[in-house]
Amino acid sequence: MVAWVLRALVVLGLLGSAWVHYDLYANQGFSDIQTIGPLFLVNVVAGVVLAVAVLLWHHWLPVLGAIGFGAATLGAYLISLTPGGLFGVHEQFVMASEVWGVVTEAGCVVFGIALLLLMVRSRTGARAVARV
Questions:
Q1: What is the distance between the alpha carbons of residues 104 and 15, in angstroms, rounded to a whole number?
Q2: 1, 113 in Cβ contact below 8 A?
Q3: Which spans are transmembrane here (predicted)?
Q4: Please, what is the end-to-end C-alpha distance for the chain in angstroms?
Q5: Which domains does the chain have, with CATH numbers?
Q6: 59-66: long-range contacts (C-beta < 8 A, 24 or more apart)?
Q7: Are 100 and 16 in contact (CB under 8 A)?
Q8: Band of the pLDDT at 126, cuts 50, 70, 90?
């Protein structure tokens, strides 16, 4: 039951991040920004693909992918908050979409790590039981 809840939270984080990036791309003018616009579309597709993989393939690899996705996307956003920005884009953490992006991406990392640890622990426990 705990694994299912964690898996659902990871999937929601991935889809939430994908939706935020889609909305920014389609409705907030990010489609006009060179480099960042196409990267937002990559984020949308990657978020959806990883969400499907985490949901349907109960293996550690898509969970690790979700953790990496969340960390990379959150890291890119944090870089965009610096004076140097990211590819010329300087964010200020004032829009609701920025808050939701941070929440969903942090959720991918936190819940992904928790799910990965649970998967490793249950796998190790299953091997110990098999040896007895």
A1: 8
A2: no
A3: 36-57, 64-87, 99-120
A4: 25
A5: 2-131 (1.20.1440)
A6: 60/116, 60/119, 60/120, 63/10, 63/112, 63/115, 63/116, 63/119, 64/112, 64/116, 66/10, 66/13, 66/14, 66/108, 66/112
A7: yes
A8: low
Kindly state the percentage of the chain with pLDDT values over 70.
93
| C-alpha to C-alpha distance for 18 and 15, rounded to whole angstroms | 5
Tokens 């990010």, residue located: 30
Q: Quickly state the pLDDT bin for 125 (edges 50, 70, 90).
A: low
Please give the structure tokens belonging to residue 83.
Answer: 């004076």
Q: Cβ–Cβ contacts within 10 Å for residue 121, how many?
A: 10
- Alpha carbon 103 to chain centroid, angstroms: 10
Q: How far apart are CA 91 and CA 131, in angstroms?
A: 54
Answer yes or no: are the C-beta atoms of 51 and 14 closer than 8 Å: yes
Per-residue model confidence (pLDDT) at position 28? 86
Q: Are 98 and 77 in contact (CB under 8 A)?
A: yes
The token pair that represents 11 in the structure block: 């999937």
